[in-house]
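About this split. The held-out portion is used to measure sequence recovery: a designer receives only the structure tokens and must propose an amino acid at every position. Recovery is the fraction of positions where the proposal matches the reference. Here is one held-out target exactly as it appears in the evaluation file.
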């Protein structure tokens, strides 16, 4: 195992010295299973074109190695002298010997790829296939598939919830069903087709197979990724053979030729760079086609069950016209509803405010009675995880939101605006508000590039100047004030953290009798000033300033605002010690009900402009709880089912 680690390190170092992006990220992903070097934008383009499965070492790559190894070993055995071959056949056939010998290169490739979960799962399926070859029952595809699934699930029952497990077995089931159908059709045909007919038949069969796999996996892809990759219907016809027949063999040949020796460049680096760059460029061009990127709300679990029930009815009742019409119509209507993903419950009176769980950061979504949407901050963006991509955007898509009226970047710090660049690129944004402060860090440059690409100009928000009416609601800026040392344009570079915090945009939302304050990261200086302003009236709910930091506790301001509820947006086990015990005690002494995203998950508040009272909910209350046995078996389990139904409704 240490030798494989050294080999991987040597290949990685050689690739880093010899290749540039995007070929570098693609090579390391398909040869040694390291996807961290792939640019996130390139990964998005693979996702849009429905070819993201090619970026990880899975069944297609491992199956290719196993197939080539099996064919090569068997051919070599058949070239042996006749006397040797006959003598060997008394004990073992060339097919069995090739199946046994193929275990070694397949296992070696899995180890070279880092033996990740998806790779080991594919290796188990290869082992089962080779065992079926050994036993001479390779035609029993579903038996082999069931045996592989059983072996994987017995090792780790939780794997059934894994997206790669579900997609892998669902895809192979669809492929198996199509192969069985096509085999039956071929057996019924007595006339040997011509070469032109065979080529045409192969093209039709490939298109049908791609369409079948795309349709079968579309609900799961939409459920997990909020996306319908309809381009995969065509792109996989060329991308899969090109990847499996050219790029993967070329990368493996370079890795084998390198031999794990320290130092030196990667063999065939120029050819690898050119071919992989061209491959990515083609997919990038396809991903920019109009309508290629289609995001949807995640389908509900009951609708998934209905979809696959209709699909099964189509497969099993293909000879019954009535069944085909009913199931086909239901499928078309269901997919049409998913593609539409409309916004619901817009009655002109109801509003909803959601504080997203973006770990140590801030992000709040305001859905107002007239359908207007305001996004305040977007969480952070890290090298391996972007809160805008992984949390904010999926939430908006699941709510049926594609247009945002106002995006407010409270202040240019990573934990507040890092995720906004992704949101700006993937949603229609009408106005962008900021403080006007300039940073030189990469996250701020990405934000500015996104604004430029979308043709948006930053509006610098100031107190009293920016008050907007949004239907029955009113959004007012309470901080920063005009003048008094605050820049009116893009000026102050290199601002210290506390200065940026005190310049944060603080907003007040008033909907009928309800008032909610969004305080960003303001500290005592800004809070003291606001406590003396007439706008600092009592609020029903407050987003606690600066994640509950001690520097943002100002008792005079808290006494004047005196909220009924408080929300702390904070990351679990954060390095800053937020929220501090003093802040929690100050809010508790006033009898303020406090919720925290690190313990309660996402928090949402609903209310009506025409009625008093707010309803608070959080993610933790919808999660199933352990049932104490035997004390509270049926009653507690019934509560779990109620939580599950509430989550489906939500």
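Reference sequence for scoring:
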């Amino acid at each position: 195992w240490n030798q494989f680690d050294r080999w991987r390190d040597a290949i990685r170092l050689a690739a880093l010295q010899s290749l540039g992006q995007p070929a570098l990220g693609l090579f390391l992903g398909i040869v040694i299973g390291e996807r961290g070097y792939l640019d996130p934008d390139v990964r998005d383009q693979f996702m849009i074109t429905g070819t993201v499965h090619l970026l990880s070492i899975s069944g297609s790559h491992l199956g290719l190695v196993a197939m080539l190894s099996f064919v090569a070993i068997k051919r070599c055995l058949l070239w042996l002298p006749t006397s040797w071959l006959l003598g060997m056949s008394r004990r073992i056939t060339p097919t069995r010997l090739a199946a046994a010998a193929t275990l070694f290169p397949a296992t070696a490739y899995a180890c070279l790829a880092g033996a990740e979960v998806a790779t080991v799962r594919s290796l188990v399926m290869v082992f089962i296939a080779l065992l079926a070859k050994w036993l001479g029952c390779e035609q029993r595809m579903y038996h082999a598939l069931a045996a592989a699934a059983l072996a994987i699930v017995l090792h780790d029952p939780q794997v059934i919830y894994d997206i790669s497990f579900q997609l892998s077995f669902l895809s192979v089931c669809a492929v198996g069903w199509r192969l069985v159908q096509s085999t039956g059709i071929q057996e019924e045909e007595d006339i040997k087709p011509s070469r032109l007919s065979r080529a045409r038949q192969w093209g039709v069969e490939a298109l049908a197979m791609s369409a079948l796999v795309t349709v079968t996996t579309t609900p799961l892809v939409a459920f997990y990724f909020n996306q319908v990759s309809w381009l995969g219907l065509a792109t996989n016809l060329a991308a899969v053979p090109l990847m499996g027949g050219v790029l993967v063999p070329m990368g493996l040949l370079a890795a084998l030729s390198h031999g794990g020796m320290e130092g030196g460049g990667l063999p065939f680096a120029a050819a690898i760079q050119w071919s992989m760059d061209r491959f990515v460029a083609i997919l990038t061009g396809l991903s920019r086609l109009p309508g290629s990127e289609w995001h949807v709300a995640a389908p509900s679990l009951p609708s998934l069950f209905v979809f696959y029930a209709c699909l099964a009815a189509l497969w099993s009742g293909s000879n019954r016209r009535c069944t085909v019409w009913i199931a086909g119509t239901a499928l078309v209507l269901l997919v049409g509803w998913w593609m539409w993903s409309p916004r619901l419950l817009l009655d002109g009176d109801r509003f909803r405010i959601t504080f997203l769980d973006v770990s140590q950061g801030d992000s709040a979504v305001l859905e107002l009675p007239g359908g207007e949407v305001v996004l305040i901050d977007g969480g952070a963006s890290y090298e391996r995880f972007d809160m805008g991509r992984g949390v904010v955007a999926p939430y908006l898509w699941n709510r049926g939101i594609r247009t945002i009226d106002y995006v407010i970047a409270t202040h240019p710090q990573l934990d507040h605006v890092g995720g906004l660049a992704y949101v700006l690129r993937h949603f229609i944004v009408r106005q962008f508000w900021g403080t006007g402060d300039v940073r030189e860090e990469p996250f701020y440059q990405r934000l500015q590039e996104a604004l430029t690409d979308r043709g948006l100009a930053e509006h610098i928000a100031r107190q009293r100047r920016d008050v907007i009416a949004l239907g029955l609601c009113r959004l007012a800026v309470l901080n920063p004030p005009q003048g008094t040392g605050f820049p009116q344009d893009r000026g102050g570079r290199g601002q210290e953290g506390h200065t940026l915090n005190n310049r944060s945009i603080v907003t007040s939302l008033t909907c009928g009798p309800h008032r909610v304050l969004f305080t960003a990261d303001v500290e005592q200086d800004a809070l003291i000033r606001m406590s003396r302003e007439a706008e600092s009236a009592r609020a029903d709910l407050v987003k606690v300033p600066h994640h509950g930091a001690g520097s943002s506790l100002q008792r005079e301001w808290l006494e004047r605002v005196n909220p009924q509820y408080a929300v702390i947006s904070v990351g679990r086990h954060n390095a800053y010690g937020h929220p501090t015990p003093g802040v929690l005690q100050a809010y508790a002494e006033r009898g303020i009900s406090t919720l925290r995203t690190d313990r309660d998950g996402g928090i949402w508040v609903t209310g009506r402009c025409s009625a008093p009272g707010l309803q608070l909910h959080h993610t933790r209350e919808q999660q199933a709880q352990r049932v104490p046995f035997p004390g509270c078996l049926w009653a507690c389990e019934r509560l779990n089912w109620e939580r599950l139904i509430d989550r489906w409704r939500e």
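Annotator remark: Confidence is low (pLDDT under 50) at residues 485-495.
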